[in-house]
Specification:
Layout (H helix, E strand, L loop, with lengths): L8 E3 L15 H9 L7 H11 L4 E4 L6 H11 L14 E4 L3 H14 L7 E4 L5 H10 L3 E4 L1 H10 L9 E5 L1 H6 L3 H9 L6 E6 L4 H10 L4 E4 L2 H4 L4 E7 L5 H12 L3 E5 L3 H13 L4 E4 L5 H13 L4 E4 L12 E6 L6 H8 L9 E7 L4 H11 L4 E2 L5 H22 L6 H8 L4 H12 L5 H9 L1 E2 L6 E6 L9 H12 L9 E3 L4 E6 L3 H8 L3 E2 L2 E2 L2 E3 L1 E2 L4
Parallel strand pairs: 1-8, 2-7, 2-8, 3-5, 3-6, 4-5, 6-7, 9-14, 9-15, 10-12, 10-13, 11-12, 13-14, 16-23
Antiparallel strand pairs: 17-19, 17-22, 18-19, 20-21
Helix pairs in contact: 2-3, 3-4, 6-8, 11-16, 14-15, 20-21
């Protein structure tokens, strides 16, 4: 099967729907969409929803960030007869996704869109208790979203029956192919009733995916979004020329000057993710890491922290970030350039969500110029070159941020209750000293000097005979001083009394140990697990005297 064989081919920009009412969908779903902040349908929604509502099989070619979840989600919700309150033990719809994270994300979105209609959606994936999933399935659900392996496990156990399933969705089909799920998908498709609807969405259309379409779909309608439409118009795209050894320095300068709300940093490998996140933490940035080697509980906790703003920077691999949809991600930074144009689109689609503006930044070395231009041509976009911020610009950005914080307090008027104290202090001190002291307090829990040391990666020196070590855990990881003492003593097999001063901050810590034991402690503790968190430890850098 080739797309050219199908005479009915719809492009998103050929159909005009200015709002969701035009689709003729139920008021309950429209109300939920409005509450979620949806204003107008995207091109892929405009192309796919009318055809899916007619019951047609759909092949949708669309990247992450184009609104494809609603493109198949809205028709799924409309299929529930009269939105009857009684739920069957047999789901009427099934959604297959390549990863756990995407399964959870899609289920959350469907749950929000169907909230007013009372639709119940259940995520099913490996790594979660199968007994809990069986219990929830027995209670009855409307839509099941899951990974192929775990779904097939339930089917074989007869804890999931597809005998009443009207529609199946294959989301990110090419990724499921890449992850080796093709045979599981075929087995699941063979369990469906003869009369059912298939909605297949994929960023690319490899031969194996087209073979599934030809075998299991009935006269599918192809809907697609042009490459130029895949790049969200509100995303500003820039690149900086940087030597490999200067990338961390460039990254921190950009973060300081841009002042992003939430930043997603992409790396090629798991090791690179560990290195970059560890260096950011060592310099005092609230960063976390996400890749396939972490446990599911760690990944869930890291996503919770990122969504809630407990950490501002998430460093991840492409696969680990699949399904990540956080509306407040303002910046996507390609620490390493994507390997292909599709990867670039997937990455930058993580910002500019829900109609908000976004910024996509790529760090490249001179040898990667040709590769960057290939991405531009294939994605039909333009990535502008910009100059890295100077040291003076970084300093000014920090000062501006501090001044903005003070002005915000003044604007809110909450400081008025302290006028009497200010008047009293002004009798003893100059306005300049008082203002500087207030800013000193605002900079955080550490003293100004300590914060500057962490930013530059240096410190003045520790107790004589002791070495000062840096660890990538802190208070936000629910770590206490006694936890560090106990873990270091146990891992390195040294008496707890030999451990010196410990300075515990939000996302990192400094520990003093006898100099002759430092290498032993580093070797024993590095990459160990403390309270569920993988720890990096090393010598803190000493400030050069000038």
């Amino acid at each position: 099967m080739d797309f050219k064989e199908n005479p009915l081919k719809l492009k998103g920009d050929l159909l005009v729907h200015t709002n969701f009412h035009d689709f003729g969908i139920s008021d309950k779903v429209i109300m939920s969409l409005s509450e979620m902040g949806f204003e107008a349908p995207t091109p892929i929604q405009t192309a796919a929803i009318p055809q899916a509502l007619k019951g047609k099989d759909i092949i949708g070619q669309a990247q992450t960030g184009t609104g494809k979840t609603a493109a198949f989600g809205i028709p799924l919700l409309e299929q529930r007869p009269d939105f009857a309150p009684a739920r069957s033990r047999y789901p009427y719809a099934l959604v297959l996704t390549p990863t756990r994270e995407l399964a959870v994300q899609v289920c959350e979105e469907l749950g929000k869109m169907g909230a007013r209609a009372g639709v119940v959606c259940l995520p099913v994936y490996g790594g979660q208790s199968i007994e809990l999933q069986i219990k929830n399935l027995k209670r009855g659900v409307d839509i099941v979203v899951g990974t192929p392996g775990r779904l097939l496990d339930h089917i074989q156990r007869k804890t999931l029956s597809l005998k009443e399933t009207k529609t199946i969705v294959l989301d990110e089909a090419d990724e499921m192919l890449n992850m080796g799920f093709i045979e599981d998908i075929k087995k699941i498709l063979s369990e469906l009733p003869e009369e059912h609807q298939t909605l297949l969405f994929s960023a690319t259309m490899p031969r194996e995916i087209l073979a599934i379409a030809k075998t299991h779909m009935k006269k599918p309608v192809q809907v697609s979004v042009d490459a130029g439409q895949m790049v969200v118009a509100k995303i500003k795209q820039v690149f900086y020329e940087v030597r490999e050894e200067d990338k961390i320095k460039a990254l921190t300068r950009l973060i300081d000057v841009e002042g992003p709300a939430l930043t997603l940093v992409f790396c090629h490998t798991k090791k690179e993710v560990d290195d970059v996140s560890g260096k950011l933490q060592q310099m005092g940035y609230p960063a976390g890491a996400l890749h396939g080697d972490f446990t599911q509980s760690h990944r869930d906790e890291m996503m919770r922290k990122f969504k809630s703003g407990d950490i501002d920077i998430l460093v991840a691999t492409d696969v680990a970030a699949r399904g990540l949809d956080v509306p407040d991600v303002s910046h996507v930074i390609n620490f390493s350039i994507p390997q292909d144009p599709e990867g670039y689109i997937h990455r930058i689609g993580r910002t500019g969500r829900a109609g908000k503006p976004g910024i996509a930044i790529t760090l490249v070395n001179p040898r990667q110029y040709r590769h960057l231009r290939l991405i531009e041509q294939s994605a039909k976009t333009r990535i502008m070159k910009e100059k890295l911020p100077t040291g003076a610009e970084v300093k000014k950005a920090r000062e501006d941020d501090l001044a903005a914080g003070l002005e915000e307090v003044i604007a809110e008027g909450k400081h008025a209750a302290l006028y009497h104290l200010a008047d009293s202090l002004l009798e003893k001190h100059s306005p300049r000293d008082l203002a500087a002291a207030a800013m000193h307090m605002m900079l955080g829990e550490a003293e100004v000097e300590e914060i500057e040391e962490v930013r530059t990666g240096f410190y003045e020196g520790g107790k004589k005979g002791f070495a000062r070590l840096f660890m990538t855990v802190g208070r936000k990881d629910k770590i206490r001083v006694e936890d560090l003492i106990r873990s270091i003593a146990a891992e390195a097999n040294i008496p707890a009394r030999n451990i010196g001063n410990i300075a515990l901050y939000d996302t990192f810590s400094f520990i003093e140990v006898p100099s002759d034991l430092a290498d032993r402690v580093i070797g024993a503790v590095n990459d160990s697990i403390i309270k569920g968190r993988k720890v990096k430890i090393g010598h803190a850098k000493k400030r050069k005297q000038v």
